[in-house]
Amino acid sequence: MTELPTFIQVILLLAVVITLFNIIIFVHELGHFWAAKWRGLQIDRFQIWFGKPIWKKTVNGVQYGLGWIPAGGFVALPQMAPMESIEGGEKPAKPLPAISPMDKIIVAFAGPLFSMLLALASALIVWKVGKPKDFMPSQIIGEVEKGSAAEEAGIKPGDKILEINGKPVNGFAGTLDSIFETIVLSSGDKIEFLVEREGAPEPLKITSGFKIEPAKWYQRRGLRKVGIGPKDEELVVGSVTPKSPAAKAGIRQGDVVLSMNGQSFIESDKAIEFIKAQGNNPIEIVVKRGTGTKTFTVSAVKPIKPADASLMLGVGLASSPFHDVRIVHPGPLTQVSDSLRMMWTTLVGLVTPSSNIGIDHLSGPVGIGNVMFQFLQMEDGWQRILGFLVLFNVNLAVLNMLPFPVLDGGHITLAILEKLAGRPVKAKALEVLQTTFALLLISLMLFVSSKDLGDIFGRGGSEKEIVFPD
Hints:
This protein is an alpha+beta fold and 470 residues long. Helices cover 40% and strands 21% of the residues. The protein has 3 domains: 1-130 and 326-407 and 425-440, no CATH class; 135-231, Pdz3 Domain (Roll), CATH 2.30.42; 233-321, PDZ domain (Pdz3 Domain), CATH 2.30.42. The strands form 6 sheets. It has a 5-stranded antiparallel beta sheet with strand order 15-14-13-12-16. The chain has a 4-stranded antiparallel beta sheet with strand order 6-5-7-8. The protein has a two-stranded antiparallel sheet with strand order 1-2. A hairpin with a 7-residue loop joins strand 7 and strand 8. The longest helix is centred in the N-terminal third of the chain and has 34 residues, at 6-39. It is globular, with a radius of gyration of 27 Å. It starts with 5 loop residues before the first helix and ends in a 13-residue tail after the last helix.
């Protein structure tokens, strides 16, 4: 079967990402729509994405449409709250019958409920088909960077990290209890490590500072790091140049190189020296991809650019910590609870003054879409996407339940206040409140999306462009 051109593949992947976004939004808004139908509310519009519709159709008095601003969606329910200034509708010619606070609560709650149901449905599929574990099991330090905070504190290669800030750790990365994530999410001016050191009669307590890598103004701020790396490593393909011998052979980014002509390598510089020494002679490369292995025979060629380039395969190799990428089958409730815990930990980091986690570390539609796009290019991408849908829909459900105007939790809060006071909030005041928070929400979305774009397109380098012949 002939492989599709790269630009066609990119277009198809983008189409899948957009479709997934639309499904997520549609299911959430469908909850509001069906609940409104059930409670007898007037429904003016059901629209995916905001802004003026680029497509619309009216059926049984309801206008269905697709907006031009690719963010969110809404069901226009004039009896819930005045949203004409945001949704672009017109005020009704005559006042509509009032609805009860309970009607408002049911309709508002239905959206997050449907998002959570979609998360559970995705979790059920993941439970059956599985997903990659993505876990670095080593807790032994293999590398301490020169001049790093860890070196200054006295942490040494060979130390096994048992606890961080009094909390037991599990592995180096891949879970909220791992070393990397615990360091990133820590608070305070210092980080306390409990390490097991060969020859020491008992575990040592070591207090370290941390450093944050500088970032440009349009990028996210760096995360906390102390300058340590795990011991167990493997040789990984970090990049594949388009049209190169490696790309034509089928080698992919993320492949783990097990051997070249029968020899195994861990250090990237020694592997590169070996490749250069082969000249244009064929090299048999065995890689691990997912849970299986693949064998490729590749010969180096000379690129068109740069002019002074030597023979190359077109792969970027890097020594990377060992990843446990077994396919696991966590239960649906475990997946949802893990997603809730991850979200709670992030929110705590956001509101903790001594933490370095900020609003700029959140992701908007661009960042979320980029994650899905990257997943889809991996061998087990569809399984990763299913796992991501669980996390994303749980986040969508919980965030919408926050008690802020415009969000579903805000509608519920106002309905409860209306029930307690015995009268609804004045329409004019409510409209001002809704519009103000809507603008704040849109501004927040634009801000985090600008950081998404900064991280995606701001990674420039001074390396020469490499171009291979067709």
